[in-house]
Design brief:
about 20% strand; Disease_R_plants; Arc Repressor Mutant, subunit A; 9 strands; 6-stranded parallel beta sheet; alpha/beta; 3-stranded antiparallel beta sheet; WHD_DRP
Length: about 220
């Protein structure tokens, strides 16, 4: 029993190419009102394998930019403000609700300390809670978890199945925990202490990420 606006949004979503649908649903990992930075989001889409790579004459990042522009033209994202030399975008709450409802088996946002269970099917998890300690058992038993986005704080004892981790806007984190050998991708943004710790070649945390194939620290 969807309302008329929600039916219209669902129809717009269903008209998207499947690659764009995956990219849209992935955005449910970020909280409502989140300020999306194009480069950051496209980087994550590429890392997740959401970008169609059949056009070998075009960089996947450029294809990802095209995806984003198409969703902006379809009003899935709206420009919010300027950030340095780029525009920051937001997603309307109703669209965010749609993304969350359609991706609940695959994506989960942990932002409430009252949450006791995380669906066992979750492959992509974002964390933004006061303390991770009480949630650690639930996170560590997620056998299908592939992606972790830490908005704050960082999860210790990361699951062995983890392939990608993004650490965003965590100014108090100064070092990395031991990382699973399965990790193939790490992205760090707006974490000044951690950025210094990951400095090449003598940062405290550098030996923990030196072997990772894809790393970006902004």
């Amino acid at each position: 029993n969807l309302s008329e606006p929600k039916r219209a949004l669902l129809w717009s979503y269903q008209k998207l190419d499947p690659c764009l649908q995956r990219c849209f649903l992935y955005c449910s990992l970020f909280p409502k009102g989140y300020k999306y930075i194009i480069d950051e989001l496209v980087h994550l889409w590429v890392a997740e394998g959401f970008i169609d790579a059949r056009d070998t004459n075009k960089r996947m990042e450029d294809t990802g930019m095209d995806y984003f522009k198409e969703m902006v033209s379809g009003s899935f994202f709206q420009p919010f403000s300027e950030r340095f030399d780029s525009t920051v975008y937001i997603m309307h709450d109703l669209l965010h609700d749609l993304a969350e409802s359609l991706s609940r088996e695959d994506c989960f946002r942990l932002e409430d300390d009252k949450v006791r269970e995380i669906p066992c099917t979750v492959r992509h998890l974002s964390v933004r809670v006061e303390s991770i300690i009480q949630h650690k058992p639930s996170v560590c038993k997620l056998q299908h978890l592939r992606t972790l986005i830490c908005i704050d704080p960082l999860v210790p004892d990361l699951p062995s199945s983890l392939q990608r981790i993004s650490i965003v806007d965590c100014p108090n984190i100064s070092s990395l925990p031991d990382l699973p050998s399965s990790l193939q991708h790490i992205y760090i943004r707006d974490c000044p202490l951690l950025k210094e710790s990951c400095r090449v070649p003598d940062g405290e945390s550098w030996p923990k990420i030196a072997h990772i194939r894809w790393k970006r620290i902004d």
